[in-house]
Design a protein that fits this description.
about 325 residues, alpha/beta, globular, TIM Barrel, two-stranded antiparallel ribbon, eight-stranded parallel β-barrel
Length: about 325
C-alpha cells in the first residue's frame, strides 16, 4: 500500500512545498490538494461528509487552486505523485482543462494524477452557467473529450453537453494521466468503475462503511469487464484510527493508497491553531493577515506530525 499526504488546510503555498519535501523524504508516495473554487454563504445542497450535513470549515479560509499549485510543488520534489482530490470536473470545460492537465503532467514528469468529482452544491453550477441537471452526462463527456485532447493529435468531439470540431492541444504528455473519481453515491461509484482509473473516498465513519463501498465498487468494476488489479482505491482511515493496525485494515479492504492528513499523521491529533479554527468553522485569525499567505517558514507542528507518521506507520511497509 502507498501513502498520500492530503493537505486541505495549508495557510501558505510555501507550507505545502515544505510538507511535500518532508513527505517525500519519509516515504510518502503522493501529495494531494482539493479544489475549493468559491465558497457559499448558504446552499440548497446537502454536504455528504459531516454528521449534520453542513460544511465543517471556515468559508473565508484560503483554498488554493490545485492545478496551479501542484505543478509548482512538482518542481520542488522529484519523486512523489501530485493528486487533485478532487477537482469539480463539470465546472471545467475540457478544451481549457486539457491545457492545464497537460502542463501539469509535463512539469511533473508524468507524476500528475487527476482526481475529479461532481460537487454537492447546485449554486456552484448556477453561478458558473452550467446545468446542474446534466452534471453526470457532462462528467462523462468531459473525461472522454479530455482523453482525446491529451493525445496531442487533431481530434473532434460531439456529445450532448460538450461539442467541438477538429482541434489540437499541445504539449501532450508522454502518457495519459490517471483519472480518479470521488464520491460515495451509486452514480459516483459507477462512473469510477466504468470511466476511471480509480476511486477516491471522502471522509468515512467506519471500516464497515468503507468495506461496503469498496465491495460495491469491485462488483461494478467486474461488471464493466475491467481489471480490479489495475484499479486505484484511495481512502482515509476512520476517525481516531491512526496506527499501523488501522492502515493494515485499509490494505486488507483493498485500499491501494491511504489518505493521510498532516493534522493527525503523527498517530495522534496534532492540530495547529489555524487548522483547529478552520475545522471548527471559526474564522481563521491568521488568514486575516495577508502576510501570512506569503509565509515561507515551514509549519513545524505539521512537519513533526509527518515525520512521526513516517517513523511509526510507513516504516512498517518497508
Amino acid at each position: 500500500m502507498r501513502f498520500t499526504l492530503f493537505e486541505p488546510t495549508a495557510l501558505s503555498p510555501h507550507h505545502l512545498v515544505h510538507l511535500a519535501r518532508e513527505a517525500e523524504a519519509g516515504g510518502f508516495d503522493a501529495v494531494a490538494l482539493n479544489d475549493g473554487t468559491f465558497q457559499l454563504r448558504t446552499s440548497r445542497g446537502v454536504y455528504p461528509y459531516s454528521a449534520d450535513h453542513r460544511p465543517n470549515w471556515d468559508p473565508e479560509a484560503p483554498f488554493y487552486e490545485p492545478l496551479t499549485l501542484l505543478p509548482a510543488v512538482a518542481l520542488a520534489v522529484p519523486r512523489i505523485r501530485l493528486l487533485t482530490a478532487v477537482v469539480k470536473l463539470p465546472l471545467h470545460h475540457p478544451l481549457t482543462l486539457a491545457k492545464q492537465v497537460a502542463t501539469a503532467a509535463v512539469m511533473s514528469g508524468d507524476r500528475f494524477v487527476l482526481g475529479v468529482g461532481a460537487s454537492w452544491a447546485p449554486e456552484e453550477y448556477e453561478f458558473c452557467g452550467v446545468d446542474w441537471a446534466t452534471r453526470g452526462t457532462r462528467m462523462r463527456e468531459t473525461v472522454e473529450a479530455l482523453r482525446l485532447l491529451l493525445s496531442g493529435e487533431w481530434v473532434s468531439y460531439h456529445g450532448r453537453t460538450i461539442s467541438f470540431d477538429e482541434v489540437v492541444c499541445r504539449p501532450a504528455p508522454r502518457a495519459l494521466p490517471p483519472i480518479l473519481f470521488g464520491g460515495h453515491h451509486e452514480a459516483s461509484l459507477r462512473r469510477a468503475a466504468t470511466l476511471g482509473d480509480g476511486w477516491i473516498a471522502g471522509p468515512i465513519a467506519s471500516f464497515d462503511e468503507l468495506a461496503a463501498l469498496i465491495g460495491r465498487l469491485r462488483q461494478l468494476v467486474d461488471e464493466a469487464g475491467r481489471s480490479w488489479e489495475r484499479f486505484e482505491v484511495h481512502a482515509p482511515t476512520p476517525p481516531g484510527a491512526l496506527d499501523v493496525a488501522a492502515h493494515r485494515r485499509l490494505e486488507e479492504l483493498g485500499v491501494t493508497d491511504a489518505m493521510v492528513l498532516p493534522i493527525n499523521a503523527g498517530g495522534e491529533l496534532s492540530i495547529d491553531e489555524p487548522t483547529r479554527q478552520r475545522l471548527r468553522g471559526q474564522p481563521m485569525a491568521a488568514a486575516a493577515d495577508p502576510a501570512a499567505l506569503y509565509d515561507t517558514a515551514p509549519p513545524e507542528l505539521k512537519m513533526d506530525a509527518v515525520r512521526r507518521f513516517a517513523e511509526r506507520v510507513i516504516a512498517a511497509w518497508h
